[in-house]
Design a protein that fits this description.
The complex is a heterodimer of chains A (159) and B (635). Chain A is α+β, with helices and mostly antiparallel strands and 159 residues long. Helices cover 28% and strands 21% of the residues of chain A. Chain B is an alpha+beta fold and 635 residues long. The two termini of chain B are 21 Å apart. In chain B, a hairpin with a 3-residue loop joins strand 10 and strand 11. The chains are: A alpha+beta (159), B alpha+beta (635).
Chain lengths: 159, 635
């Protein structure tokens, strides 16, 4: 079943451990500049937001790729790079509306979240629960329940 | 190889910057952080200099594990001769500065001389620039960090900064990064201010190679789960250190109205649960699962809308118990103010409590305070006093000098009421019922403080076999150990053990909440050695790591001795011996510290260290640790 990484922004504590462990997993070095995920912060307001590839259904990165190196993978919910086809033109970096396509200067190639092939390292480290790897089909259900709970309380107060 | 980070010696008088490798031998002897800092300070600083003169030296560093997959390896350490005490200045903070310093290519900075005009340092991928800081001078710590990001056009820059208090040389000015992380103690903000260094900004994309990346990641996850899963970890994630207050206050271990009571009755209003009203979530330092501080927006008519982070347990003491205040919003605002203006929360609270008691006793009057009624429990007065201290106005100018300096301007009888050791004020804990903690504050190298050697778990009544397991490793110990925190027996070894443990984490750059400080089940020497093997690739036994800590601790001791410290400086003020605790549990009520027994504890403590009865490391101790020729000027 297709799974996606969802972000619970309110739960994020801004510790950036996701960046650290992503870089170690993918590059063998501690180097957040090569991480596929980044926590964007508005420090003075205390607002933190992890940003990573949204694995779009109609990926802009794939649409602009002149070699067809980016595509949605069958049987999963992710957009993958075919390294054999990629020429490193970085059109995808330009096109991605989320900044999720990055450039790894040290390895001279573009990079993006690959969900660690089914066990995202960032998620497994996030004790705060800001990152979750869930079934795509029911990804919104928990949120629906939370919203429903608030609504149901209001309804009950009316009765 | 994970040890590529460099040392930069920056001469602010001449503008000369010398970048050099850190020799492997020094790494193995001191690792990094506080350990290597004391080596550098002991070598670079001439004895007897004015702490606020250009001859003083400021060391800024990351630990050897900083910014790597070792949990909470976020700590920055700053060291110099303290403008507050005249002895060792040493202070430590979390946040994101140290990891970024490492990504920018450096582990240690040594600042020499002083600039004539305000400057800030800009460190980016191996390059260091001394930049004009005139436009930053006068800004608070938050504004300074933002202004630097604007000027350099990179919102990801991390910076440490001093506030107006550091510029005005308040002797306990702190150094702040972010909105809350503060290297608070011993006045390192004043030291930077005296050098006209407003800030240090860092940004880097130089990855840190790891000796065994896959294993390190696996071990990191194991540690994270373990640390976050402890009872202590769970409550830290919810409330941070503010949770401690309810426990210590109900027991009767909190200094109230300076030192007049040991319990603030009717103070539910300042217990941790009150955070819920103001909190908008919690916040973590780099790579930490405990996220032990709240992000808050004050909900209150007076200071409504003010954003802050924290407060720590120490701020509940500083703006609560010590000044007799149960106004929670005032505590949050006080916490915000000290971070913004750049003064140490502990020292500020303690000195305010002192001033209020002096006022109550008529030792100082309205004439001295410029009309300010220094009454305990009055939030407005307290907030005003914080501002006066930071800006050196009115009575604040006297308090800004710290205990030593203030005593030059206050009546002699004021001295006995200040709760300080070596010229540094204590936090808000009352150690009269707890000999182990009393020994800790009496002997700590930077003065009265809990983060250098406090056996906090001594308060937990742990069964003797548990104590035995902890304190018998890595160095065997078969002396007495007691589960009772009111006992004197066995405590000196506990203090020594925690000194070594805390020194070790300070060398690694790991947070003390991730070791045996407030929880007996946290990682210690064995786990540290595993990190060292996996991350920088240093093979070291726990016994060897203990020796590293001992070496660095002995250098700190030598440093203080060289500056004139003697056994007399390892002692408490008379009130500990003469005024019994009036409140609290039966076992803590009516307690004083016994002079004779404290003296015996200190004798024993010196013996464990291999120091003579005057508190000086013996020649054989120095030889055993390989520091008999310091200062050796290896770098």
């Amino acid at each position: 079943m297709a799974k996606i990484v969802i972000i619970d922004q309110k739960a994020c504590t801004g510790c950036r451990q996701c960046e650290l462990v992503c870089s170690v997993k993918h590059t063998g070095t501690a180097d957040p500049s090569r991480s596929r995920i980044n926590v964007i912060k508005w420090e003075a307001e205390g607002f933190y937001l992890p940003m990573l590839c949204q694995q779009c259904l109609e990926p802009a990165c794939a649409a602009v790729c002149p070699k067809g190196a980016l595509s949605r993978e069958k049987g999963s919910d992710r957009v993958v790079i075919n390294r054999d086809l990629c020429i490193g033109c970085k059109m995808c970096v330009m096109a991605c509306p989320f900044g999720a396509m990055g450039v790894d200067v040290k390895e001279a190639r573009v990079i993006k979240c690959d969900q660690c092939d089914g066990d995202p390292t960032c998620v497994s480290f996030c004790e705060a629960g800001a990152l979750k790897f869930v079934d795509a089909e029911t990804a919104n259900l928990a949120k629906k329940r939370a919203a429903g709970a608030r609504f149901s309380q209001l309804m009950r107060n009316l009765v | 190889m994970a040890l590529k980070r460099k040392l930069a010696v920056i001469n602010l008088s001449t503008g000369e910057i010398k970048v050099q490798e850190i020799p492997r031998e020094l790494r193995e002897k001191y690792l990094g952080g506080r350990g290597l800092d004391i080596y550098l300070l002991y070598n670079y600083l001439k004895p007897g200099v004015d702490p606020l003169g250009p001859e003083n030296v400021c060391c800024i560093s990351a630990g050897i594990l900083g910014g790597t997959p070792a949990s909470a390896s976020a700590r920055t350490h700053i060291m110099g001769k303290s403008p507050l005490t005249g002895y060792l200045g040493s202070t430590n903070m979390g946040g994101f500065f140290a990891p970024e310093l490492r990504y920018a290519g450096f582990d240690h900075l040594v600042l020499l001389g002083a600039s004539k005009k305000p400057v800030y340092l800009w460190i980016n991928n191996g390059k260091i620039e001394i930049r004009d800081g005139s436009r930053l001078w006068g800004l608070d710590t938050f504004e300074t960090q933002e202004a630097i990001r604007d000027e350099l056009g990179d919102p990801e820059i991390k910076a440490l900064a001093i506030g107006p208090a550091g510029e005005k040389l308040v002797r306990f000015a702190n150094v702040v990064t972010g909105h809350k992380n503060a290297a608070g103690r011993t006045g390192m903000g004043a030291l930077l201010g005296s050098k006209k260094v407003k800030a240090v900004a860092v940004r880097g994309t130089m990855g840190i190679d790891l000796a065994k990346p896959e294993e390190a990641l696996k071990y990191d996850k194991e540690m994270c789960k373990r640390i976050a899963g402890t009872k202590f970890g769970q409550i830290m994630q919810r409330y941070g250190t503010a949770f401690i207050y309810g426990v210590t206050n109900s027991t009767g271990l909190v200094r109230v109205n300076n030192f007049q009571k040991n319990q603030l009755t009717e103070s539910e209003a300042i217990e941790c649960e009150n955070m819920d009203e103001h909190s908008v979530g919690t916040s973590g330092c780099f790579g930490c699962q405990l996220h032990c501080r709240h992000r808050y927006v004050i909900k209150d008519d007076r200071w409504g809308g003010t954003f802050g982070e924290g407060p720590e347990y120490t701020s509940q003491g500083a703006f609560g118990a010590e000044v007799g205040c149960t106004d929670f919003a005032a505590i949050l605002y006080g916490n915000h103010l000290v971070n913004k203006l750049g003064i140490d929360t502990l020292e500020t609270g303690s000195l305010m409590g002192w001033a209020m008691e002096l006022y109550e006793r008529g030792i100082i009057t309205k004439k001295d305070t410029g009309g300010l009624e220094l009454k305990f429990g009055d939030a407005d007065t307290m907030i005003k006093l914080v501002q006066q201290i930071a800006n050196r106005e009115g009575i604040g100018d006297i308090l800004a000098e710290g205990y030593n300096g203030a005593m030059k301007r206050l009546p002699a009888e004021a001295a006995k009421y200040c709760i300080q050791v070596k010229g540094m004020s204590n936090l808000h804990s009352d150690e009269r019922p707890t000999p182990a903690l009393a020994l800790n504050i009496a002997t700590a190298t930077r003065g009265s403080d809990h983060l250098r050697s406090r056996p906090a778990i001594d308060l937990y009544h742990l069964p003797e076999p548990v104590l035995r397991k902890i304190y018998n490793s890595p160095i065997p110990y078969d002396g007495p150990l007691s589960s009772s925190y009111t006992d004197y027996e066995g405590k000196p070894w506990q203090v020594v053990w925690h000194e070594m443990c805390y020194m070790a984490v300070d060398c690694l750059g790991v947070c003390k909440f991730h070791t045996v400080f407030l929880s007996p089940t946290m990682p210690a020497f064995d786990e540290f050695c595993e990190w060292l093997r996996l991350i920088p690739g240093i093979e070291m036994t726990p016994q060897k790591l203990w020796e590293v800590a001992e070496r660095a601790y002995n250098l700190e001791r030598l440093f203080n001795n060289r500056e004139g410290a003697t056994r007399q400086d390892d002692w408490l003020v008379d009130r500990y011996f003469d005024e019994p605790t009036p409140l609290g549990f039966d076992e803590v009520r009516g307690k004083t510290i016994d002079r004779k027994k404290l003296k015996a504890m200190i004798d024993e403590y010196y013996q464990f260290h291999g120091w003579d009865q005057k508190g000086r490391p013996k020649a054989e101790t120095l030889k055993r640790l390989g520091i008999e020729n310091e200062p050796s000027h290896a770098v």
